[in-house]
Amino acid sequence: MKYLMFVCTDGEPDTDRADWPDIEAWVAENDARGRRLTGDALADTTAATTVRVRNGELLVSDGPFAETKEVIVGFDLLECADLDEAIEVARAHPMARQGRLELRPVVSLDG
């Protein structure tokens, strides 16, 4: 099953720095196991553009849609047997301690 993992900042990171995970090691391990299909960091929110259509009119604005201190800074597309495995993969990601990770199942539109 595919899961999109949003990598987000958080205002309350873990203060225990013991055994802090290494992102390069996390990527290498999950790539080697075939659990990480792709992933990347995102540009700063100052580079974001929000697009909406209301009453047939295109509305384009600079920046993210929501004003918040917690933002999405990256993503990983995972292939896991189930949610339990996806949680274990997320648990080992460095941002689980610095920020937060949101897992969402990918729903196929192919029917």
Automatic annotation (TrEMBL):
Positions of the YCII-related domain: 1-108
Gene3D superfamilies documented for this protein: Dimeric alpha+beta barrel
TM annotation in the entry: none
Signal peptide: none
Domain of life: Bacteria
A Pfam family that the UniProt record links to this protein: YCII
Family membership: Belongs to the YciI family.
The protein's name: YCII-related domain-containing protein
Biological source species: Micromonospora citrea
